[in-house]
User: Fold these one by one.
Assistant:
Number 1:
Amino acid sequence: MKKEIGFIFDLDGVIVDTAKYHYLAWRNLANSLDFDFSEEQNEQLKGVSRVKSLEILLEIGKIKLSEEKKETLLIEKNKEYLEYVYKMTSDEILPGVNQLLTFLEINNIKFVLGSASKNAQLILKKVGLLERFTAIVDGNDVSKAKPNPEVFLIGAKKLNMNAENCVVVEDAIAGVQAANTANMVSIGIGDENVLSEADYNFNDMAAITTDFLKNLIN
Ligand code: BG6
Ligand code: MG
């Protein structure tokens, strides 16, 4: 028997590889404050809000700043990040995404976005995917950042579905934890050792097979 399920997709690192642009902008900011910031350390920033990301970054650099200075840095970081975003086209949709969305559409499975980003609408518009989502839940809609499940719980409401029937696709530890706390099925995209808390793991979106999806629905 077919189960009624819905999908909630994270954006950065799942639909598009904007994680690399976030990293470049944060690393630049770190360098401007005279410390380096590795890709490994960047894992801690994935999935968490812009404000929280800066807090973590400053902790790594062991730097204390005034609220005013932090505000300025947040604006600067986003400005640099948006320079990359404005250049984005549909070429930057990650492999496997279009196929997966098409499979869901053909099977009448609704999907929404559940992202911490305040730039989500703009990014989806740039890559031509905005209209395909039933709803967008993003950093402008939540007061609590992942690993708090708020963003996914709002997503479930938009899908009109119980949490247990929602499948979350995430590339961040904080996101997988948020999905698990919300009692949703979690799919981790990326390094399975990093995302060991996920219910299912795939190296990338292209690795999600139709057989796996059919099993999930049946
Ligand atoms: C998440 C990213 O999707 O959005 C984080 O994984 C990022 O790295 C967060 O900090 C907030 O994004 P933005 O676009 O509002 O700065
Ligand atoms: Mg992500």
Number 2:
Amino acid sequence: MTGALTIRRPDDWHLHLRDGAALATTVAHSAARFGRAIVMPNLRPPVTTTAQALDYKARILAAVPPGLAFEPLMTLYLTDNLPVAEIARAKAAGIVACKLYPAGATTNSDAGVTDLRKVEPVLEAMQRAGLRLLVHGEVTDPAVDIFDREAVFIERQMIPLRQRFPELKIVFEHITTREAAQYVAGSDAHTAATITAHHLLYNRNALFTGGLRPHYYCLPVLKREAHRQALVHAATGGSPKFFLGTDSAPHPAQLKEHASGCAGCYTAHAAIEMYAEAFDAAGALDKLEGFASLHGPAFYGLAPNAGSITLRREPWTAPGHFAFGDAELKPLRAGETLPWRIAE
Ligand code: NCD
Ligand code: ZN
């Protein structure tokens, strides 16, 4: 049994840091593990301009603890009204991607795109500029069962989008189904996917074990076991099309433990540790470095990080809660024992 594993410092290609006082907690957790992160723009109001993204980046950098190096990679939130000219400004300012939320698909997505046809000129500009398109791949049609919304998205939106923009680099974010894993595996090199740690570790039973478990609720929602297995297969198979994106998405505990609980699991406090656990369970620790540290930079046209981290098989207990501004944040696995820990 491997007792320790040293890998290139990983990156998180899908992360929600939030803003204001929350950054003290969220940035410290991510920066202790990851060299870079793709920062999601779904603030209230959303980050829709280059100027807003650069201001947000400065607030994130100000929250990086002394002694740690962490580079936030910024994104813009696509709306029906994003001016085409904003793409050139974004590119010049080092913004790497735009995020497509179908309107109403998830937390803070009300400003999202109502019809893909409305953003075609922007997608064309992105394709030319080499900005990545990050897609929340779920239809919002209330007639579609919530467990089927990702698979239906492939047919209704992803395949037509791909045909219209064959050179656009697309990340199918936080995939949760066998259908999405197969779609990405079978598509050309311009399509990739991120996979979260919680979708590798849990199936939808986790939502209902011994009662309703709001801290396991995220979107896209956890799926049945066969889908979890397909995701593990994709993540551990060595394909450069799949890479790490935690989708760590903090909410105040009182809004998760609520009659209408918020979607989002907070995993940044133990993210690479949970991925190590999932890869270990699959007998694929040797594939963790590619997934966590190499495939993502390659897709984004960046060099891997220079440094490394070491993970040890050494049980530890995750804290029960963290400060989150004036509120309390309960992470996934709060108070539980985790088998892998990151060496200081
Ligand atoms: C995310 C959030 O809270 O911002 N929630 C989630 O369940 N993943 C939004 C998102 O990425 O869908
Ligand atoms: Zn997300």
